[in-house]
Design a protein that fits this description.
Keywords: Dioxygenase, Fatty acid biosynthesis, Fatty acid metabolism, Iron, Lipid biosynthesis, Lipid metabolism, Metal-binding, Oxidoreductase, Oxylipin biosynthesis
Number of strands: 18
EC number: 1.13.11.-
Structural class: alpha+beta
Radius of gyration: 29 Å
Protein name: Lipoxygenase
CATH class of one domain: Alpha Beta
Largest sheet: 5 strands, antiparallel
Strand content: 5-15%
Cofactor: Fe cation
Function: Plant lipoxygenase may be involved in a number of diverse aspects of plant physiology including growth and development, pest resistance, and senescence or responses to wounding.
Helix content: 25-40%
Oligomer: single chain
Length: 870
Amino acid sequence: MFDKIIENISGENGSKKLKMGGSQSKKIEGTVVLMRKNVLDFNDFHASLLDRFHELLGKRVSLQLVSAVNGDSQANGLRGKVGEPAYLEDWLTRITPLAAGESAFKVNFDFDEEIGVPGAFIIKNNHHSELYLKTLTLNDVPGQGRIHFVCNSWVYPAKHYKYDRVFFTNQTYLPSDTPMPLRYYREQELVNLRGDGKDEELEEWDRVYDYAYYNDLGEPDKGAKYARPVLGGSVEYPYPRRGRTSRSPTKSDPNSESRLPITSSLNIYVPRDERFGHLKMSDFLAYALKSIAQFIKPALESIDSTPLEFDTFDDVLKLYEGGLDLPDSDLLNDIRKNIPLEMLKEIFRTDGEKLFEFPMPQVIKDNKTAWRTDEEFAREMLAGVNPVIIRRLEEFPPASKLDEKLYGNQNSTITANHIKNNLDGVTIDEAIKNNRLFILDHHDILMPYLRRINTTTTKTYASRTILFLKDDGTLKPVVIELSLPHPDGDQFGATSKVYTPSENGVEGSIWHLAKAYVAVNDSGVHQLISHWLNTHAAIEPFVIATNRQLSVLHPIHKLLHPHFRDTMNINAFARQILINAGGVLELTVFPAKYAMEMSSVVYKNWVFTEQALPEDLKKRGIAVEDPNSPHGLRLLIEDYPYAVDGLEIWSAIKKWVEDYCSFYYTSDEMVQKDAELQNWWKELREEGHGDKKNEPWWPKMHTREELIDSCTIIIWVASALHAAVNFGQYPYAGYLPNRPTLSRKFMPEEGTPDYAELESNPDKAFLRTITAQLQTILGISLIEILSRHSTDEVYLGQRATPEWTLDHQPMQAFQDFGNTLAKTEERILAMNNDKNLKNRVGPVKMPYTLLFPTSEGGLTGKGIPNSVSI
């Protein structure tokens, strides 16, 4: 019906085309690709029709070309001449489709010889709602032919901006090479993105990138229980910076920022172009709702007489084979109201599928019990979800680096007698000399917090695990030490117990529990440090600084920008519902309320240059320099899947970055004289990672080599490192007994009821010790979300925009990069089929694919997205 009305008003096809200038004037025809706001609840459907009537009333989307060659005489020639407005045509004939999608529109510009070559354009949106501008392509520009503009940006109604929205061609310029008429626009766009520095709450249309401390994790107004220290800006709690939101301070603590209610979590501010796209958002929401405890709990209590416990391993398996019905609650209804209509279909399914039926994790797909073996326990330190901690043991017994004045003697109590009979006939000295002893050491990280952690519902230890490298290339655990703070005070050191392998009877059950305490330590360190701190939190300052200091025309902006997609948004969601006081992470990971504070203490030892994979492997004593080995490094554990595949990916990234940077920077002097680049690096050090600004290890950014190394590290961390520690979460830890996230009881003592239960019903005793039922469902709900690839994911070696640069040589280098990664995929598949490489598959029959570059959407256990995007 609306179509008929519009046709009657405006003529046959619903469009009014305005002639610009005389009928003989030369036209430049262009195509604009955009996506209109379309969230499809009832009100917004009317909004999309309002767009159309506004068009009839003369309100338009206008575009004006900006000259790259001729200045505007009214601006002293310092700005490119701006052409007459042209308007989108054929807008009216497009009824907004029910699925938010792209549309192409024609636009015709009058050709003004004084414009000459367009290098930018200004767009004004006079509709009442925003639109997503993808590209503008000009055809047959006199003397130039085709000119392409890559935009990929939300454009809000003009009333929301104090400046013009400007977009540039896909040309690349160093600051000093920028055509003079474009320099003003280049510089002004960076000024706009930096904002005015006023501490006022930011709105969704603001495009401001600025820094803030992590001061919004607690809610002190709710009481001391919910107060959390500000992370960042202090010697005690250093931290990378987050994106500024500037909400009002809390009433009880002016240094803490107030929080949004949980039902408004989707509205937390990030610059609009950093928000998830509509496909990603619906994918994310469909699974995110699983992990809200308030409406899971009633369902569990209604179906189970002991709601907080699994009684048998078969009970755990029901999560994957039975499923739970979705309950109703006020909170759920509240959330329903706040979610756009187009997303509800997937979330509140009408196909009878049970929402809480989880996919079978890979670790138990082939064999339900192989996860319990010592070989698999050790293998996952090399090919699991946290393969970045294990290091070579260089002294025996292991020593602590904790300050003895504060913590007393924290050195290990493991003796030669504990391990000498388990080294396959080799002495301890020989094993150390021949690089055959390794350690998973969580002692020093946890001990300073352990006394406080154990005042919560958590009851756990600080662990050390020593492993022996066997002749067949696999590792076996030979001893586990579990330590507690001394009951009389920290200054008296640790009290420790040592456990050795056993397979049968109560000794076998105790060894199984000892491994579980190690897994609890490792899962917490993994989630808080390997994953959150070292990828998510460490990368966000680079996202902010790049947008503030490097123009979209800058080659390094073009190089790095794909590796920042969705990072600010996922981190903002994390602050809102995961890492906040009482959030999902605190509920499911053993350090509980001390989790984020503990990650801040670990950040004190963060070194940018050590995030490079070769440096990390050398620091951990796993690799030594060797010019005759691939990539110049010899691995001391040859079959170390993460390191083997990682070095292939690292080298491919390094070669690509080297080829790219060498095209634009032909000398060190060019690096030094690039004002934007120098400002970017200065701000990264002094603001983004400001608590580390005086560290001597920062590259000075004086040479091409420093630029190449730094960009390689940034890309590695954002892509491959994050993939290695993220997408294996559900495949390995979706079955919680394999990687429990917390422990609720200490090791049973002989003569106690717990010990008797361990003797009579070891499985029940095990399940009563590790993560309870509610936290298990919360935890695996969370890691299922985090382990999924969005259907619109962009992987390493790919670009969302094919025409991202005009320069042929970088484009060819990028193609070569993609080809190298394709060959790496072939090598990974071949290695996974090599029976001699036992660590690649293991007893659980689970090939190592976490660094396999590509993937389809969903829960695949492979694929390296370009960015920390989930």
